[in-house]
Amino acid sequence: MGCGTCTTQEEGQPRGCKSNGSCTTDSCNKLSVFDWLSNMTLPSHQKPFNIAEVRFKNGRKHFFKNTKDLSLSIGDVIAVEASPGHDVGVISLTGELVKIQLKKKNLTPDHEDIKQIYRKASERDIKIWQASRDKELEVQRKSRLIVLRLGLKMKLSDIEFQGDGSKATFYYTADERVDFRMLIRELASTFNIRIEMRQVGLRQEAARLGGVGSCGRELCCSTWLTDFRSVSTSAARYQHLSLNPQKLAGQCGKLKCCLNYELDTYIEALRKFPRTDTVLNTESGIALFQKMDIFKGLLWYAYKDNPINWHAIPAEHANEIIAANKEGKKGNSLEDYTLDAVNDAISFTDAVGQESLTRFDKPKKRRHKKRRNRKHRNNAR
């Protein structure tokens, strides 16, 4: 954590800023960009870039024009144009780096989606904004009860109020098309606000809600991942992983995005290995594939007549046998290439200030002599 309010207390307990997404330092928020050009000055004839990046709830970011030439810096709370009314957000990036962010989003400075900045948020704007944010959990609870009563096959995952409190966006997931016209009417009459329904995918839902993955770290999609590429079961097959849906699926119910992280490396390594359905014709008989170790570059084969005994051979030797078979020749026996299994003895070393690991195995020495000497002394006295 970068902001001072997120440090620990004297007892070691985390203090926590409790800003709930409205931290003004922008140092512990999702997808924050470090402005490494902040200490550099522009040439005298060049004006500062008039577009700023503004962050809203759950890392949602948009670009807005500074048409009024306001003096803005990272962390400022501002009021921006919305439809209808205005919204309240926090400046997350300014200056020349915004041009790079626009290029990543394939946007031009004169794009119609880039609206304008009204003003720096006043105290009244911030109070209304905070009051709207505080109502989100209760509105979400009541809205879910309405969805259950109407029998709609959808899941309301999150609610985001606009900065002026006049509009609320309901994020939901659904497997099928949902007719929510009656739902919008009931929500509008119950909460007296404008309603916007926005469907998101299961991966986007997990990114908005966040969580901790099976690796023990925070979800990639809620911290840094923005490119949600499709993940197929072939990625698990290439890496020789167990096709267990419970282990391969993430919190979103889809295949884990991290299956794609090392996929290219595995595909590159597998090019040196022969196909698993290739049969080796050797002098000692026909050998069938059993398993492989990509990291060590080994393959295990067993003779068709003796499937119990496996022989580990390097991938290059297996390719030599296959090349000889293509020429109509038999390859050498697997015993000629088999590697001897080496069991390295594990040796434990004492760490600094640590006693021997076998200290409990040593019998304690008896101290009968000292006890006898004590008795003689007591009797003498």
Architecture overview:
This protein has 10 helices and 12 strands. A hairpin with a 5-residue loop joins strand 1 (51-55) and strand 2 (61-65). With 381 residues, it is an alpha+beta fold. The protein has a 5-stranded mixed barrel. The chain folds into 4 domains: 20-34 and 47-120, no CATH class; 135-200, GMP Synthetase, Chain A, domain 3 (2-Layer Sandwich); 207-269, no CATH class; 280-336, no CATH class.
What is the topological layout?
Blueprint: E1 51-55, E2 61-65, E3 77-81, E4 86-93, H1 97-104, E5 115-120, H2 123-134, H3 136-150, E6 155-161, E7 167-173, H4 181-191, E8 194-199, H5 202-209, H6 233-238, H7 245-248, H8 263-270, E9 280-282, E10 285-293, E11 298-303, E12 310-314, H9 315-326, H10 368-380
Parallel strand pairs: 2-5, 7-8
Antiparallel strand pairs: 1-2, 1-4, 3-4, 3-5, 6-7, 9-10, 10-11, 11-12
